[in-house]
Amino acid sequence: MLRKYKVSLLVLALLAISLVWWNQSRGFDNTAMAGIPVYADVDESSVLESDSLSSKLEPSYSSYYAEQQKSGAADAADFDLRLPAAEYSAVSSEGTELLSDLGGKTEKVLAMNAEDSWVEYTFSVPSDGFYQMGMEYYNLPGKRSSIIRSLKVDGEYLFSQVKRMEFQRMWKESAEPWRDNQGNEFNPKREEVASWQYREFRDAEARTADPFRFHLSAGEHTLRLEAIREPAALSELRIVSPQTLPSYAEVKQEYAARGYQPVQDRIVKIQAETSSLRSDPTLKRIEDREPLTEPFDKDAIVLNSFGGVGWRTGGQWAEWNFEIPESGLYNIGIRFGQWFLNGIPVERRVMIDGEVPFQEMNALRFPYKAEWQVNKLGNEDGAYLFYLEQGRHTLRMEVQVSGVGPMIESVLNTTHKMSLLSREITQVTGTNPDPNGDWKLEQNIINLVPRLHLMARTLDDAVQAMYDFGVAEGSSELSTLYEARDRFLEMAADTTSIPARLQQFTDLQSSLGLWVNGLMKQSIVMDYIEVKSEDQAWPKDAAPWYTRAGTMSYDFLSSFTKDYSGIGNTYKDEKVLDVWISRGRDWAEIIKQMIDEDFTPNSGIKVNVNVIPTLPADQKQILLLANTAGLAPDVALGVEGEVPIDFAVRNSLVDLNDFADYKEVAGRFREGALIPYKYDNGDFALPENQNFSMLFYRKDIMEQLGIRDEDIPDTWQEVMDLIPVLQQNGMDFYYPHAANNTSLAINEFAPFLFQFGGDFYKNNGTQSGLDSPEALTAMKMWTGLFTNYKLQKQADFYNRFRSGEMPIGVADYSTYILLSTAAPELTGWWGMKPMPGIEQEDGRINRSTGGLAQTGIIFKDSDMKEESWEFLKWWTSADAQENFGSELESLLGVEARWNTANIEALKRLPWQQDDIDAILEQWDWFKEREVVLGGYYTTRYIANIWNEIVLNGKFPREAMEQGVREINKELNKKREEFGLKVPEASGAAGSGEGGQK
Prior knowledge:
By secondary structure, this protein is an alpha+beta fold.
């Protein structure tokens, strides 16, 4: 029998051996550096170092501190100075005022209200050494963001992190959670708590565990505090000798010396979702379906835990109140989930009654595991004991990233070295090198191979440090470091391969930047905190597998009968308005809550809300199928801007001109924002939000190049004059080009076309307008940026902007959000202005551009048209839009800031004043393109024309003429398909009256 199947058995054996070999070899090699030389005195500096960004900016705090320690600096001792805020030596003439009786303070305090206000103090220290500083502040009414201040000592920023120090506001829940008529629980609103707080000057990203240490020489110094964002009052500044936290062993000895004893038979449980104060309104209750999570409801949504992905950014904290029944020593445990960073522990700083009890609590680790755990606060010798007096206490937990701070620093230093080396290589090879050429890089670039080896070793050391930190070996979170290390080694082994790897080099830079951003997002979710006596058993970590399997099975079976599309209170067998929303469930829940609290009580109109997919293709298909089947809703929100005309041409939407007050409602928006929703003399949608493109620039780098804020380019000619200056300094200007998304090319070309006075269509949208002289001039300027000025055809602007390689460029609203949320080190050091334009004969600068976004529509089959219009009017009103924007930002953070199309509402939302002024100036020129039948061909051919000119070297006129012919063919074809007349000039009968049937 065996002989009969020996071939098959042999094949199976070989496959098994191959599988084992593949599984063992597919990981990264931890011995890769074994044969690499260890360099002692290699000069890693670049010939471009003197021109690089880092040479012109302040060092990081870790570099500053290490350098001072090398020079023999040590902590000062026995010094504690309090500087009353009102006793300043100098103050800005505007934006500051002295206040009395604020928050219970009887003495005068200093309010810093304006974003450019400042105050200066003079003080003396008795000896050379390190000192720590902090301030007591009061959060004044502002725009809901954290308070940002910068600090100069003797007229200088000592290190980069003092340019942006964060001081959080405080938030609490305004009421208990509420439930809908299906029993599901919802978060209450959060409201701000105004109170005095003290905070040391710390790293805003929490990459260092201790407050900053400032080295001061003996004698007099000046300290200037500058307002970067948000108003706040200052009570006093403190300058003190550094305080060293005791270890747990020292605290335990003190307990024994004082005779503290463990309590007996005590358990105090604090549900994490009941947090009394939070540093951020985005910190909220969340749902967890693990059966042991308290409380648990198998049939409804219960917000039974706290944190999750929203509680992840350095400095964010939450605080809980609890009562201790008896003075004595207690254990503390926390039931938590930490499955967010694969294999990587995360940290929290733990404070009890405002103090870190001992050193080990300054950066408490929460290990990774793909299920719930209990952190028994302790070490290998057992659980820690905490002395707590009888009565009320607070426990605060703050996001800490100090454990991985050194690794982040080394990776960021490596990306900087990569940037310099890449530019050196490009100087030798050019931007498009012949991969087969002999460029003799080792001769032309000093220490090329050692520099590559050292960068590889730095990343390998970072990997080993991550293992020492507690990362599980083989974690996918380290693959980026391994990948970059191995590529460096390959390049060093064969330097002739480097010219062909330039794009790979750039991609590695971007990947390392993203790795750093990801590592700094340290989330955990918490169920409860338990303060107990030693004799009480620890709670269970997670439910048994069979209990979880039972819950999963129940949820699966329930999914066949449960309606997940409805949001909040739902109504049956009643006259009710049916609204479909193409947005995330969190967004829809806010809208539904607003409807139930505001719209329905005031109008008497009941509303059911359902969620539909957000992807444009899925959204359009669902609405088309529902309309065809007679199941369309009354109102749809979140509809993509190009969709309404597809329904209007099918006579499926209500012409909003049928309502007497349409013109009045339309006045809420920029006139140019309504252009895409016009068809056949009708108006078929109202805009909900708008995208917009702006000019972003690094204030610090522009200043170093001698370009003042008022000299930032206003016209495209000024941009073209600036580009050579940037390129001479190893930098570049950015203009977007989405090479892999042709649908975006039309938005990239539109500003040039509109600013030169051209348009995409003529004759009421029946023919392409790209055969006009204005369109040709616009196309030459657009493509000329890439052919004549050699702008990069594709680049990661966000990361290049952060690194300083692209310190200025045009980008859209999403970049504003990224810079506001994911580039904290740049807060206050970047600006936003209206995008460049074309100067007109009257001296004005035409900055016309569009920003097609999302809309609200009413379906024609609705039997509640008047009620639908009332709803759409309410939803697009300034009050509703402001309320929605505020609630959305409270729930999801600044990254969800609502870019409403309502002009008045936009002014009320929490934008910085300079930003909103720039946006409103840009909106003065807001102009959107028409949406016409067959317009997708225009989108396609704009991208084709760019490719023909920039990539294939075709003459612009020839490429444009070919594109216009193809576009006109498709426009005529689609009009014929829908029974509309085509223009006679195109060779078909018709009057050329555009959208007329």
